[in-house]
Amino acid sequence: MRIAAISPFVDRQHGTERALAELLDRLSTQHRDTIDLYAQTVSDLNCGPYPAARASDSGKIIWHPVSSFAAPHLIRFLGWLLLNRWTRRRHERVSHTIPDVVFSPGINALDADLILVHAVFHRIAELQQSRNIGGLRGLHRRLYYALICSLERRVYGDPRVTLAAISRHTAAQLARYFGRHDVTVIPNGVDAEHFSPAALATMRERYRQEWNCSPRDFVLLLIGNDWRNKGLKTLLEACAQHHAQHGDVPVHLLVVGQDEQAPFRREAEKLGIAERVHFFAPVPDVRIFYAAADALVAPSLEDSFNLPVLEAMSCGLPVVVSPAAGVTDWLAHGKDSIVLEDPENAGELAAAIRFLATNLARREAIASSGLRTAAKFSWVTHANELRKLLVNVAARKSRRESRQTSV
């Protein structure tokens, strides 16, 4: 099968993009599908640029670079929609090949046949309204979300577009906002060999020392972009409460992702914990952070899945997670995780941190159970289930086009 996959960038440093890389790898190697990948940048993926990779190659990922330009995010996104469509049409004319199905993780094209939804921006926009961000930055963000929400209504509301979601949480939002009750749920996976306690064992001491974390420190980890949505403010407050009440159990916090650091650095300084909070940009091998940490904390306000939670569990870490994260569809509070009742309650979060930091036996039991839960998820299963959907969509598309031709 020939699949056109559309995403602005693909790498293994970000959650959605890492999930796409894992999927494309398996579709090409295990199912021998030919993937025409339309993206602006690609890294950490075994692919060849067109025309070096022949259009007739099977079981290959062929990268078709899409042009990009410097501009505010809203303008760049509009340019991306136009340029990826133009690049695809040009390739079809030159190569005389048409994909069996057009696949997109999210709204990256207006003509996708199958979309795997990783986030519903209608819900994110609702959360943004309560933040009241002013100035040009706030105006730009409101305009951007207004555009995305308009596209969601147009695309997700079209019954001819097949939708899949990475959690029941997200499928419920698609039903709520767009009346789509026909959504297939295909959860993310995890590479249990790559993300494993054994793989991390040799990294732990090196990176804890590098980041000035002593053996007696309890190291927390938060991974993700848009730190307001990820609950970083509440987490900082919880760390400050823990420090004030249980200073004998020192806590360090590693924050990994892309966002504006200054507001959170100021908050940490105001709370008196700045020297215990460390900020990092995404790196190719995120395992160094899991290796250094004692627990992953994810008090997000909204998360379609939260892949780092699953990866942390696979690495043998206990996790504290928000009920607003889709991954909790498969978790059991107190057994394989701690699921918060209110992710914005700093006191509840501080109590969860204190429980894990001071109760070694329970921490190890939760981590052990979490390891077994994570083992139920794999990228092989994810790719197999999505490919079944791709085959069905391609067959329906072919029948529809045949009827149109015969008329």
List keywords for this structure.
single chain; 407 residues; alpha/beta; Rossmann fold; 2 domains; 8-stranded parallel β-sheet; 6-stranded parallel β-sheet; 14 helices; 45% helix; 15% strand; globular
What can be said about this structure in brief?
The chain is an alpha/beta fold and 407 residues long. Helices cover 45% and strands 15% of the residues.
Task: Describe this structure as you would to a colleague.
This protein is 45% helix and 15% strand. The chain has 407 residues and is of the alpha/beta class. The chain contains 14 helices and 16 strands. The chain folds into 2 domains: 2-189 and 378-397, Glycogen Phosphorylase B (Rossmann fold, 3-Layer(aba) Sandwich); 197-374, 3-Layer(aba) Sandwich (Rossmann fold). The strands form 3 sheets. The chain has an 8-stranded parallel β-sheet with strand order 5-6-3-1-7-8-9-10. Strands 13-12-11-14-15-16 form a 6-stranded parallel β-sheet, with helices on both faces. Strands 2-4 form a two-stranded parallel ribbon. It has helices at residues 15-29, 73-95, 121-129, 135-156, 168-178, 197-200, 204-210, 232-245, 262-271, 287-292, 307-314, 346-358, 360-374, 379-406, and strands at residues 2-6, 9-10, 34-39, 41-42, 48-49, 61-65, 101-104, 114-117, 162-165, 184-185, 218-223, 251-256, 277-280, 295-298, 319-321, 338-339. Strand 14, helix 11 and strand 15 form a beta-alpha-beta unit.
Q: Given the helix and strand composition, which structural class is it?
A: alpha/beta
Main-sheet strand order equals: 5-6-3-1-7-8-9-10
CATH class of the largest domain: Alpha Beta
- Inertia-based shape: globular
Main sheet summary: 8 strands, parallel
Q: What's the CATH superfamily of the largest domain, by name?
A: Glycogen Phosphorylase B
Order of helices and strands: EEHEEEEHEEHHEHEHHEHEHEHEHEEHHH
User: What amount of the residues lies in strands?
Assistant: 5-15%
Number of DSSP-assigned strands: 16
Poorly predicted spans: none
Average pLDDT level: 93
Taken together, the total number of domains comes to 2
CATH topology category name of the largest domain:
Rossmann fold
